[in-house]
Amino acid sequence: MPDTKRTATGVLGGLAGLVGLSAAAGVLIAATVTPAVAITSTAAERAITMFDNLPSVLEIDKLMLPSNFYATDPATGQPTLLTQFLEQDRTPVEFDQISPVMYDALLSSEDPRYYQHGGIDLIGTARALLSNAKGGSNTQGASSISQQYVKNVLIQKCEQDAKTVYKTDDKGEVVLDETGAAVVELSRDAVLAKCWSDATTAEGAEGYTRKLQEMRYAIALEQKYSKNDILLGYMNIANWGGVTYGIESAARQYFSTSAANLTVAQAATLAGMVQNPNNFRIDKPEGSIWSSDGTTSFNKAPDGVIDEGANLVALDELVKSGEITEEQKFAAADGYTSTKVRQLYVLSRMLDDGKITREQYVEAAVWPITPAVTPPKTGCVNSVGSEYFCQYVKDVILNDTAFGETREDRQALLARGGLNVYTTLDPRVQATAQSAMTEYAPSAADMPIGRTVPSPGRFGATSVSIEATTGRILAIAQNTKFSEDAALSSDPNYSSLVFAGDLTYGNSRGFPAGSTFKLFTLVDWLEKGHSVNETLNGTLHVFKKMKNSCEGDWHNTTNDLIKNFGGNKGYMGTPMRFTKDSLNTGFFAMAEKLDLCDIKNVATRMGVTQGNGKEVSMTNLNSIIGTNFVSPMAMAEAYATIANNGVYCQPQAIDRVTDDKGNELPKPQRACSQVIAPNVAATAAYALQGVLASGGSGAQANPGDRTPVLGKTGTHEEITTWMVQSSSRVSTATWVGNVDGGGDITKTRYNGWTLNQIRFPISKAIQRTVDEAYPGEAFAKPDDALTKVQMVQLPNVLGMTMDAAKAQLEEAGFTVEIGPEVDSNQPAGSVGAQNPGAGEVAGGTTVTINPSNGQGISVPDVSGRSLEDAKRALRQAGFGNVSDGTCTVNDAAKDPRATGTNPATGTVVNRNASITVDYAAADCGGGGGGGRGGGNG
Questions:
Q1: Residue 440 to residues 387, 433, 498, 500: CA-CA distances in angstroms?
Q2: Which residues of 44-61 are buried (b: 16+ CB within 10 A; e: fewer)?
Q3: PROSITE patterns, from UniProt (predicted)?
Q4: Partners of 908 in the beta sheet?
Q5: CA 678 to CA 670: how far, in whole Å?
């Protein structure tokens, strides 16, 4: 193992040592520069002078590191890895986190005199030069570990700055093709390949100069850093094939272990691979070889057969010595023959250097190279169960200037900057949302057999949950399978679009909001001081004009009639009821008293724009009921604003960001601000709770767990449906529809639900989990002034024709119901009764009017008359069935006197009804205790 106390005291320990070399050393140095057979002393002196003048300071940049996305485990509070983004899969480790046997394997095979030389292995260089001077294909390298470290540092410097090169004209301007796209002269992949080629080519004048510069840097490096630091730096920067960089990632990638736990056989394999990693890599069954042009070929010996060109003499010798069997030899050599040859070489060097025992050597030599590949977890496709949330976070990083001025800068930071991104994802909510999506929202592959509906287009569904008090996005679920593969773009089962987002974050244009957009008319209504219990004419009729101070008033010049869902004729009612029933004509009646421009401004204040980022457009009647294409994210946040007492919090998907050392970095700025007055928000919440109550349009989504919830349903033709609901803590928007804007989702059933109705069980399931994880409280009480009942005068319509009475009552703002025929003294067919009667009543009261049958007579007042006169008067009024009623003893009454009637005076009853006359008399018979008089018929 390396000796930590060794120092750079070799013959080339510094520049002074090099200058003082003998003439032979001068020839050696010059030989790296001048490809001549004979070198004069003058040439040697010039070479040394050139060496002196080369730069000696090598700045070692930060390693290119993967960026990590994390979610917080609610049970432990600890971060859990969702996925990584990387160009180079690298996990840097400290010196003592690498097994000593790995250091021994690398040094024995690559630089056995590492701890003796000062950056350049003079003996190894001389040997390589002499060997290479003989010609042939069996050339030898001579770079020390320090030189190899320098080479890797220089390659990475080049890769860090590598960018796509675009073709330019004589003026230096970028050339565009016929589509307007910039013409690529050299792709970034080609630039990266050139970085490697330039740093490793040792032929020609440039190559020799590069080699000399590499030596100069290596010597200076050893004067600045310890041997262990340089060795560790090399272990962390070196490539082990493909995107695998650094020993820790190599150990995980190829053997599913850590650098600290590598065995002798594994360490020797990795040490053998590093010389030509893409030739010897073992993560592919074929044992891939990457060519310089980027193509891949394969080289694997057939089962049980050893390549003729493979030098497996070491195994033959072990067979001859009886230490292994012939079968063990073939087993060890099978599969990765060229890599096995390299491993055996490393093992032999370790044995010769006394780093391993003979027993360890035999055990490792006979071991068949057995990969246990653990590929890097990279890209959102590996964030299983939260792919679309991951993609949203990725889009935030790629589009927010907090992470760089240009998109290319931000892309580089994500892939190479070693960010630790701690997201707002709540695994509990996410798991429920995705599970509900899977259960109720089929992908195209799960559509019922024989069904092409919804067609044309692509069926989609999504949900997004946001913490109302902070704007933290807790979950994003979607029904499609995530893929960024362009080849799958036409497959309706796959998508890279985040339906919950917009064009900037999610690459989605949004969807027609439907009746969820009525929220903004409700808020504007309240802001103008109107009550939710004010009475309006919400019946189906032609609305002629809407005020619009932004774009000019809208006039219905064609007398278009916009109907209600399900053929509802509408009614005279209040915004409270309109909201519960989601009545289009009711909201038109509200907007008729408002300004469309103000409604638009409410939506803007509450964070709602079109999916393309532009302000919503309020140009006509249809705009009120949600023709604007908006994102589910925006609508969830708008309803969260109501639940949060009018405070709007910008959505945020990132809690914090650190670098690879744990230092806090800037994150996107997100703020909360009061955009709606608290009393307005509280009153809107009061009205919106009716939507989720029994009989409300969204009642099927109510979780039924006693948590107060508000919300709104939304439908746009047969294409799109919504359910947005919120507790005081969390708001969830669920959207279901046709992504491409066509087709009918009302005719296909899946798992017991039509597709336009699956919004309800999805929203319900999510809300139950939300309510458990984030217990909600009662919403603030509504404003008395904004909920006051409007008292109006109810006219008397008795005796009017039924039609005339109905028209007059509706014009006054009442809903009219027709009751059954009643006994009345009004003309037959006219209004014989109304309930309630004329007088002051609450606005919007339902009035029942009953037609008269013409048979009613009003009972006259006969009190004080003699009993006989009273009965005579009743008969004269038209009653044919008159009799004595109750007698009350009164000593002062000499003759029986009428005291009242039953039915009472003024009551209108049928002429054939029985009328009794109550009276008082000195003697009622039966001992004066009161009773019925005899009467005389």
A1: 19, 11, 19, 17
A2: bebbbebbeeeebebebe
A3: PASTA (PS51178)
A4: 858
A5: 21
Contact between residue 857 and residue 876 where contact means Cβ atoms under 8 Å apart:
no
Instruction: Give CA–CA dist 755/460, Å, rounded.
Output: 10
27-70 pLDDT, tens digit each: 444 444 444 333 445 555 555 666 667 777 788 889 999 999 99
Sole residue written with tokens 């974050």: 505
Helix (H) or strand (E) holding 861: none
The token pair at 789 is 């009942």
Distance CA 737, CA 458 (A): 8
Which residues make Cβ contacts (< 8 Å) with residue 897, sequence separation at least 6?
864, 865, 866, 867, 919, 920, 921
Q: What is the DSSP letter of 558?
A: T
CA-to-CA distance for 510 and 628, rounded, in angstroms?
A: 9
pLDDT in tens, 541-597: 889 889 999 989 988 888 788 888 777 888 888 999 999 999 999 999 999 999 999
- For residue 741, what is the DSSP state? S
State the Cα–Cα distance between residues 505 and 476, nearest whole angstrom.
Answer: 12
In contact, 30 and 45? CB cutoff 8 Å: no
User: Could you give the dihedral angle defined by the CA atoms of residues 62, 415, 286 and 370, in that order, rounded to the nearest 10 degrees?
Assistant: 60
Who's near 40: CB < 8 A, 6+ residues apart? none
Cα distance between residue 743 and residue 258, in whole Å: 54
What tokens were used for 647?
């405070």
Q: State pTM to two decimals.
A: 0.81
H or E segment at 88?
none
- The secondary structure of residue 647, as a DSSP letter, is E
Structure tokens that stand for 432 in this block: 């429920």
